[in-house]
Amino acid sequence: MTTKNINDAILAINPTAIFKIDGNEIYENIEWQDGTTPIAKADVDAKLVEVQAAEDAAVAQLATDKASAKAKLIAGEALTEAEADTIVI
What's the structural domain count of the chain? Predict the structure, then answer.
């Protein structure tokens, strides 16, 4: 599972954002660069929860598709494209 971070949240809100983060107090140390409009901490926090939930759902779906693909292969049934994608190298 991939853990999403503040960078992912910021770029999900503004894909063209240019910023730099220094230090341990992550949000408080964001330096917005090249005229990037600062994003409110509450907005970043909310988006971080959203992007992490989407990542978790994608990982869970991949595991489900992989298990389903295996069962269908054993049973000689046709696979969906998503299931086939889990076994194609």
Answer: 1
